[in-house]
Design the sequence.
């Protein structure tokens, strides 16, 4: 059978079929050998029986012959018969022969002279005609053969004859005695040896047989010894032509093969029965064994399939068995457990933040997506989904300064503190990576999220104590809501992030997403291309605002500020495009532009022989730009400008975004001879430790404190302490936002070094500035 057909059967069926076929083959082989053996035995037995039968036949004939011979001998000694023979008294001869014939049981008696001429017969009828001739022939044959007896058919009847000599001085001759062979003799022989006998004459006519006359026709045509079919049965036949038995006669002995085989056949049946039963038992046995194998195997295969679909709650068969199936089952069980635990671990890795145990960004995103999906369906009322994205301030510096282990602990503590604030609506906290956390708030409106954000801001006011260290916490938080600000999860996350970045830049703490602030919004993309055009179409203007030295009332410095004269919108204030330019990175081009403008203007500003140092505002982007110092170098070289003519204003937040890199850039610039100033001082979170390390020369107190110091005592305190702090650190102090005389006076009193503000002058175009400075000099002279 081809393999592909076999492989369609299950193992159990194959096993059963194979064993059965094997069993059948073995049984058949045994049967064939046994059968051949039996047939051989039967054949041999039949042949032996035939030999025995033949001998028996000879024996019976011999016995008959002896009896006849004795009768004949008795007759030969009879004196009366002898004298009748001598006298030739035929009647007496006949009468005496009849008496002796009857005594010897011979049906035929006759006397012959020495020349074998018939003298008399016991039966009158035998003395004439054909019968007499036949007797004459028999007697003559005896004379030739001198056999003990002779068979001869007369009138289709088979006779056995014996011839006995009579020797007398007066007469010598022969006495013949014969008897017909009766079927009883054949029957006797059959009973004794089981062999049938038949005698055939030269015309193949059956003269005598133990078989029924029906078979005579067939018998008469038999030519050769061997197996023959007679009367629906098989016989082993032996044909023998023996001279002594009689002229032209053939003896056929036959043994019924069925009879010889009968005892074997008797064995045959039970054997077949045993074979049959054993085959059936074997079939059941192998099917049972096969099932015992295939049923659990099939169950195991099904279980494995279930596992592959992620269903692990399947009962495994044969777990307690000690056989191979049990082993396989246990192996599968083991595999299930380890796959399950691996899957669990993978899920944990994929969806959980390892440090805090909070959901990670992936899971957070999934959660938002699900919530959007549920609320879109709106089955239980539509909620507002707000994402609060929170980014810790200065985390990088904490990490750098106190080590990563501490940073990790800090993040855990922050996560713990944030968790306490999930009080409104349905809020989920997640760690999105690094120092960034996300909170999904599902509530009736966005106010709940705002309340959480404010709660966090308040909670962060309490410094965190960790390992004897006190860490001030602060963070930028950006809020964006579905469906107001975004319609899908990615948009929602990116808008919350934009808001968060803005919150950090503007140090507002919490910022709700506003398309106007979004550099990626369509309106702002338009603005970006406008800004590019502004640069190309010379729509930008350089404005200068003087810085007054308070000790001697001179103007030796000014701040360069950017103005955009939009052809349609008119004058665009820097607050409307600088934050956006910072987000997109375009601010770097603006910085270079203003540097270029200032460098170009320097000769005119120095024209009256009095040097002027111009302050230029740098953004985070500039500080993080590796090439910035080189670009600056090239520019200065081109315009033959000196670093001493510049002051670079940097905000605290710009430094804190990446303190190490910022510091490297600042070190570089300072080494080149640029003066460095910390802008908007007081609004950021720079630590004293940092200030001390940075190569700065100047602090610029933010205008919000300066403007407020007139009326707000705490602002005044800040201004005062900032001035003291700066002086203690060896730095000069500039106050910006001086709008009136009173403030100016106060600053003089506090020994502030420089002042800048509308009171002196608003930022004005270069020619105006030159004019203003000339005027200022003149008033100073007077
Ligand atoms: P800033 O660096 O703090 O610049 C000082 C701002 O205070 C200027 O606003 C100036 O006009 C304003 N100011 C000066 N004196 C007074 C006063 O007495 N009262 C009031 N109320 N304001 C006063 P401006 O020019 O609108 O610039 C706003 C911000 O835009 C600047 O703040 C600076 O951060 C940014 N900016 C302006 N030009 C540039 C630039 O060229 N590059 C960069 N990176 N930033 C620039
Ligand atoms: Ca400034
Ligand atoms: Ca400022």
Sequence:
């Amino acid at each position: 059978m081809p393999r592909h057909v076999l492989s369609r059967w299950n193992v159990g069926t194959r096993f059963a079929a194979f064993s059965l076929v094997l069993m059948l083959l073995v049984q058949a082989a045994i049967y064939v050998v046994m059968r051949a053996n039996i047939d051989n035995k039967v054949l041999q037995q039949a042949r032996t029986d035939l030999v025995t039968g033949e001998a028996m036949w000879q024996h019976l004939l011999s016995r008959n012959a002896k009896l006849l011979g004795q009768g004949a001998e008795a007759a030969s000694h009879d004196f009366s018969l002898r004298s009748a023979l001598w006298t030739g008294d035929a009647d007496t001869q006949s009468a005496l022969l009849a008496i002796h014939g009857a005594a010897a049981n011979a049906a035929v008696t006759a006397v012959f002279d020495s020349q074998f001429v018939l003298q008399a017969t016991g039966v009158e009828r035998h003395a004439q005609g054909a019968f007499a001739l036949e007797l004459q022939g028999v007697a003559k044959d005896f004379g030739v053969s001198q056999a003990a007896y002779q068979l001869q058919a007369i009138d289709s009847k088979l006779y056995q004859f014996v011839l006995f000599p009579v020797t007398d001085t007066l007469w010598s001759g022969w006495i013949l005695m014969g008897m017909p062979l009766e079927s009883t003799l054949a029957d006797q022989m059959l009973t004794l040896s089981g062999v049938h006998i038949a005698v055939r004459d030269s015309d193949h006519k059956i003269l005598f047989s133990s078989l029924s006359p029906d078979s005579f026709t067939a018998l008469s045509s038999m030519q050769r010894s061997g197996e023959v079919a007679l009367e629906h049965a098989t016989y082993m036949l032996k044909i023998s032509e023996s001279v002594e038995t009689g002229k032209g006669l053939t003896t056929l002995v036959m043994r019924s093969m069925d009879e010889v085989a009968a005892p074997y056949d008797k064995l045959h049946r039970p054997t077949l029965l045993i074979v049959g039963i054993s085959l059936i038992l074997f079939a059941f046995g192998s099917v049972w064994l096969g099932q015992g194998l295939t049923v659990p195997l099939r169950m195991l295969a099904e279980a494995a399939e279930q596992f592959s679909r992620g269903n692990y709650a399947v009962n495994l068969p044969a777990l307690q068995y000690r056989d191979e199936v049990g082993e396989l089952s246990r192996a599968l069980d083991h595999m299930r457990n380890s796959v399950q635990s691996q899957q669990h671990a993978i899920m944990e890795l994929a969806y959980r933040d390892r440090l805090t145990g909070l959901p990670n960004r992936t899971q957070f995103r999934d959660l938002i997506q699900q919530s959007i999906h549920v609320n879109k369906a709106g089955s239980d009322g539509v909620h507002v989904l707000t994402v609060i994205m929170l980014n810790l301030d200065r985390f990088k510096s904490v990490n750098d300064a106190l080590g990563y282990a501490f940073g990790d602990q800090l993040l855990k503590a922050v996560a713990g503190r944030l968790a306490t604030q999930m009080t409104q609506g349905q809020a989920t906290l997640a760690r999105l990576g690094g120092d960034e956390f996300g909170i999904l708030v599902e509530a009736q409106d966005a106010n709940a999220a705002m309340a959480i954000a404010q709660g966090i801001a308040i909670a962060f006011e309490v410094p965190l104590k960790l390992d004897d260290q006190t860490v001030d916490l602060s963070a930028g938080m950006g809020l964006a809501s579905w469906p107001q600000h975004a319609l899908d999860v990615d948009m929602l996350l990116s808008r919350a992030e934009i808001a968060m970045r803005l919150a950090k830049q503007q140090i507002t703490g919490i910022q709700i997403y506003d398309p106007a602030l979004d550099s990626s919004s369509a309106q702002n993309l338009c603005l970006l291309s406008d800004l590019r055009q502004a640069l190309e179409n010379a729509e930008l203007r350089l404005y200068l605002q003087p810085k007054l030295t308070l000790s001697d009332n001179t103007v030796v410095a000014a701040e360069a500020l950017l103005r955009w004269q939009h052809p349609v919108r008119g004058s665009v204030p820097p607050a409307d495009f600088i934050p956006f330019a910072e987000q997109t990175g375009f601010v770097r081009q603006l910085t270079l532009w203003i540097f270029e403008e200032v460098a170009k203007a320097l000769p005119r500003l120095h024209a009256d022989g009095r040097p002027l140092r111009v302050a230029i505002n740098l953004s985070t982007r500039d500080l993080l730009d590796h090439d910035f110092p080189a670009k600056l170098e090239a520019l200065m070289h081109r315009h033959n400008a000196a670093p001493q003519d510049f002051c670079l204003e940097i905000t605290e937040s710009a430094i804190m975004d990446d303190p190490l890199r910022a510091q490297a850039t600042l070190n570089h610039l300072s080494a080149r001879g640029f003066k460095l100033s910390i802008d908007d001082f007081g609004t950021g979170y720079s630590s004293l430790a940092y200030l001390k390390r940075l190569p700065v020369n100047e602090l610029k107190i933010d205008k919000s404190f300066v403007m407020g110091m007139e009326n707000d005592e705490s602002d005044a305190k800040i201004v005062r302490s900032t001035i003291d702090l700066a002086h203690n650190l060896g730095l000069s102090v500039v106050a910006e936002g001086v709008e009136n005389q009173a403030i100016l006076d106060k600053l003089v009193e506090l020994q502030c070094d420089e002042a800048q503000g509308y009171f002196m002058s608003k930022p004005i175009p270069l020619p105006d500035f030159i004019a203003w400075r000339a005027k200022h000099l003149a008033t100073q002279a007077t």
Q: What stands out?
A: Residues 53 and 193 are 6 Å apart (CA to CA).
